[in-house]
């Protein structure tokens, strides 16, 4: 018997994604039809898609599928990629009148439809006055281009502001909010859900299985090389890096283990727990029109997940374990911060993970595993040499030699570090030209960070070279008493 909870079939992996060496899992009608057949056989009819999925080709596949399954309803969204660069292959839109109309018309043309059920705005556009966006949406609604419209990734205060503006100007109001929601990601509970409930909006929960982290496949010690090429958490491409940034943290895996241990006592899996928790124990309210957006690797997995949707509440012990797991997961996710481990990793590692792991000479973790100990050794040698020289009033040649050894070792490691940085820059640029990586992560903020880190590294290198020259004749040498050089270079 069909559950009262409405379910949407998500299509984010559909279409002709361009990951070098990878065949997209759902790039043809023959590949997507088993999913739609299974979905529709359970009395389900709603499909969630987006203009950016498959660079527009997901909507085209859905149009072809609709020819075999009448009665499907569709939601799509527009992403302001011109304001928030993500991938240069995405069609660039603002949320001004021209681009809103153009984006929606392109979606409708790809879907071969005159209207969609829901048209979502994915992300605010701070370069376009909000009133102009809302007025355009009102006009498109009155033209019959969509039945309702909704918001994705808008903070609660902005949702309230939009509702106020629509009310004052008698524009059509948004009636639905879509957000990421699962046992590990529950930030919407604090402000967003109370806000949308106040304004009579329904909620659509995306990523109920944490993009697969709750699927039972992945473990804390999963090696990068074990990820299928182009897979959800493959660090060599944009989507994989994005999802790892959200989910791939030790506290998340610890929380997952808590759920699995409780579930095993009842012959259940974490996947089943996550779906049943969403339906019966979360902030999702079927009676208010809320939806769950589901994805699956194949038709068999989709049928299994739909069975979980239609199952009853969790056993009390399992429900408590899921709730407790959230407390552990918040260590990694609270306020958008991630694990202590991630926060303390060297900046080069974080930069490489953000841009392209594949362009690096070796695994990102090795950068801080190699260079941090090298820095410590260099500083210890310099400290020992300085202490010996201090105790002898500068007459200890051994102290000078040990200090020089520390400085020389630091210069050597800095040279290697700078060389690897230059090599990475050239490889990343070459990979970008070949389409292996995207430059979208290299925005103005990234350029500023890279520029400052590079400048600091070069200045430290110059200072270390100067220190070698300064000590080359000992503490009584002329170089040490050159006031101009000291003022100009010692301050670096």
From TrEMBL:
Keyword Transmembrane helix: yes
One annotated Gene Ontology cellular component of this protein: membrane
Start and end residues of each NADP-dependent oxidoreductase domain: 30-325
InterPro entries, A to Z: AKR_Detox_Biosynth (IPR050523), NAD(P)_OxRdtase_dom_sf (IPR036812), NADP_OxRdtase_dom (IPR023210), RTA1 (IPR007568)
Keywords (A to Z) from UniProt: Membrane, Oxidoreductase, Transmembrane, Transmembrane helix
GO MF term list: oxidoreductase activity
Entry protein name: NADP-dependent oxidoreductase domain-containing protein
């Amino acid at each position: 018997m069909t559950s009262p909870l409405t379910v949407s079939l998500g299509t984010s992996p559909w279409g002709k994604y361009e990951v070098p060496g990878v065949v997209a899992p759902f790039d043809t009608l023959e590949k997507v039809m088993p999913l739609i057949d299974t979905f529709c056989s359970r009395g389900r009819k709603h499909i969630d898609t987006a203009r950016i999925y498959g660079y527009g080709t997901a909507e085209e596949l859905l149009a072809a599928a609709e020819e075999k399954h009448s009665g499907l309803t569709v939601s799509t969204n527009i992403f302001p990629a011109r304001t928030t660069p993500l991938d240069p292959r995405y069609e660039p839109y603002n949320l001004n009148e021209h681009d809103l109309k153009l984006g929606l018309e392109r979606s409708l043309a790809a879907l071969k439809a005159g209207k969609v059920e829901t048209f979502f705005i994915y992300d605010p556009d701070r370069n376009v006055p909000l009133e102009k966006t809302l007025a355009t949406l009102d006009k498109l609604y009155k033209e019959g281009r969509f039945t309702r419209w909704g918001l994705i990734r808008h903070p609660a205060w902005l949702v309230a502001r939009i509702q106020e503006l629509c009310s004052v100007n008698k524009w059509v109001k948004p009636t639905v909010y879509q957000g990421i929601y699962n046992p590990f990601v529950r930030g919407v509970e604090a402000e967003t859900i109370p806000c949308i409930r106040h304004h009579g909006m329904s909620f659509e929960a995306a990523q109920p299985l944490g993009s697969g982290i709750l699927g039972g496949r992945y473990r804390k010690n999963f090696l990068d090389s074990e990820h299928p090429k182009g897979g959800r958490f493959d660090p060599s491409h944009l989507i994989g890096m994005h999802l790892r940034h959200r989910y791939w943290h030790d506290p998340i895996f610890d929380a997952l283990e808590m759920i699995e241990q409780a579930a095993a006592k009842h012959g259940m899996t974490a996947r089943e727990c996550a779906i049943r928790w969403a339906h019966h124990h979360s902030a999702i309210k079927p009676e208010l029109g809320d939806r769950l957006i589901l994805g699956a690797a194949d038709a068999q997995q989709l049928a299994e997940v739909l069975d979980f949707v239609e199952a009853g509440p969790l056993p009390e012990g399992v429900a408590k374990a899921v709730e407790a797991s959230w407390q552990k997961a918040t260590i990694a996710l609270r306020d958008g911060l991630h694990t202590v481990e991630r926060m303390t990793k060297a900046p080069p590692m974080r930069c490489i993970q953000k841009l392209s792991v594949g362009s690096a000479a070796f695994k990102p973790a090795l950068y801080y595993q190699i260079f941090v100990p090298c820095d410590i050794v260099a500083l210890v040698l310099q400290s020992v040499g300085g202490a010996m020289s201090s105790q002898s009033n500068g007459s200890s040649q051994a102290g000078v030699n040990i200090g020089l050894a520390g400085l020389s070792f630091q210069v050597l490691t800095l040279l290697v570090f700078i060389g690897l940085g230059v090599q990475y820059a050239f490889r990343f640029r070459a990979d970008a030209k070949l389409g292996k990586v995207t430059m979208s992560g290299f925005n103005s903020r990234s350029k500023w960070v890279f520029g400052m880190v590079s400048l600091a590294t070069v200045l430290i290198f110059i200072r270390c070279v100067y220190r070698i020259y300064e000590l080359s004749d000992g503490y009584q040498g002329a170089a040490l008493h050159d006031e101009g050089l000291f003022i100009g270079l010692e301050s670096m």
